[in-house]
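Table 4 source record.
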Amino acid sequence: MRISSAIPDRLRRLMASGVLGLRLILPHVVGLILLVASLVFWSPDTASLDHFDVVKRWILSFAPPLGLLVAMGYRRPRGGLGAPVTAWILIGWIVSLQWVKTPWSQELDVTVGWLFPFFFFLTGAAMTPRAWGHCVIYLWIVLGIQSVLMVLQYFDRDTLFIDWIDITSASSRMIGTVGYHNQAAAFLALLAGVIWFSTSARWSRVLVLISVAAIIALTGSRGVSLGFFAALLVSGLLSIINPVHSGADRRRAWLGALALIAAIVFIFVVSPVPKERFALLLQSDQRDAAVSSRILFSQIALQMWSERPVTGWGGGSFAYQYIDRLGAILPEPKTHETLRSVVFAREAHNTYLQFAAEFGLVGLLLLSLTGYYLIRTYWSVRSETPRMAGMGIFALVYLGVHAFASFPWQMTLAGPLGALMLGVAWGTCFHSLPTPAHRAIVLHRLALWAAFLLSLFIVYHSTTHARLVRAAANLETTSQVNAFLEDIPVWGYRYQAFAGGWLALQGEYERAAIQLDEAKVGYIDIWLLNNLGHVYSRLGDWQSALHHYQRWADSGLDHRDALRNLSVVHEQNGDLAAALEILDQQRRLWPNVGLEADVRYSALSLTVGRPDVALQVLQRYEGRELRVDRRAQVLNLMGAAWLMTGNIEEARLIFEAVLALDPENVPARRNLEGLARP
């Protein structure tokens, strides 16, 4: 009996010491992961498919399993159960919709992006206030590095990273080492919130807030600016009216808040970038491509939601359906104003509409309940833990406002950091909340184990993703491609598309067609459609090529190239009239297409019996300096056009001029001989 009872006791003590050790290192590991992830990226010299997000997500994916192990070591849940229960049900709903999709693995990368914030929320909840203080030290370093780099990039003085990141205009691309400048600005805004609510030194906090406000102003990011202002105002107001403050303290707080807000407003007013960017909002939407493109995104998301209002389409469905739905929404004929608003996107740039389209009313209800429980928890402890409650409100308001114009939850660094802040703030509230019943604790543990297993899948997914990105960038031989194809998992449609494009470049069109057709089942972009059209053209399957080029052209993306390819396929199919009509559309939008395109257009016009159109185009080149062979080509077509109009003498003079330039020109000689015959 002594042995049997001693073993569990030893195991229990061992497990307790292990959990304690994990609890002590958790803030340092999470802080170090955020620091490293913010700095590491692949240089464009590696020809990687993604310079920033893939490697950062791979590094970030290792934090949640550790945080969940620590959370399972607590004897009771940290904080109230309302927010995590509704969040876990929401995650179950997201995963369920993914599995019932056909195929279930379609655009799985986007679904994983939705899950990242949830796991970082649980990681933050596993930290005590003291542990969070250790993590903040690393975030101070991150804030300093990114701020300095972004300012240097604005003034074109970043000699360390600018060549690697391949910035073409440093003043408009303040990206630090984060990625796109909006993502860098969002990350900086949340870091400022961390410092403001986690640091006691008043002047350090003020200096950080003003500095970050100035950098955000220089980026000109409107969504980040509005979210930052809203978060400061709401969290600051709640802090001022906190019952813990006395009358005199509250008056000083009001004066300090007004002075700080006035300083930040002054920064944005005197900075030329935000003034210019916000002025565009007061003009016609068509003058601002960023606004008009978001209107298109919203229309597509609303259309999807209206078709499946309760359940939605499942995670990643917006990215998969975007191109075809974009083509159906765009007006005909297309104009330059229309095309300026057309960009390729995998997110709707409005988190709420995309969430509704992909997860329906059920998902929105669960999301709203999660937010409600978080707000209620922060509000209930605002007197006992005012700073942590303020940080939770700051993160929630910032992400909530920015989500109307972008996708901050899915941003590689901003989403996890914001969720981490929410989790830390929620986890520190457990002292003031009642102990849950034993049954609730058991369910809580089971949910944590399920989340832990899912977080291991996220680690596997991110690791595989990073490994395949590097492998795809280094493909050189057919044997490497064969090995690469065998290594692609069931969800790796993106890599099948890449391998298919590589095979097409090597002339292996039949194998390329197989890979590209499999890829389009779960992943769609215009480059995939272009490769499919090219491969089927090479195989002589012009109808299949026509189908894919038409999908591309309908979307309006890279419209000039799409119309050119579509006209070639119509010509090969023998439908010359349709080919010429497509070229007419292209020329209305881009009249200066160049000599080669003008020659082809003129030849087609002559073939369908429109010599007047051909003459109108060819006469532009009279008097221009051209190579002898090019001038002979133009003159031959002009002679043929005059001949078709019945002006034989003019045609004769032109053919003779061609022979004077090039006595060996066979087409001109034949044309003259034809004129000499009775």
